[in-house]
Amino acid sequence: MSGHPPVIVHPPSPTGGRRVTVRGQIVGLAHGRGEVASFLRRAGLAEGAEEIDLDQPELIEWRGGDLDTWR
Description:
Blueprint: E1 7-12, E2 18-22, E3 25-30, H1 33-42, E4 60-62
């Protein structure tokens, strides 16, 4: 892959949650790690029961905070 990773988790919104985009398309608003993992599964980036490492810079770019920042 070149350029940005396929998944971007945007900075927290003032009302809570973080917008998630996959390959440039908005897939939803996540309020925790589990929801990000669910979006990745639905987008075909992980298998159903597979443990997803959300701290992979080649897969996910966390903007405005890391995977523990939700507000």
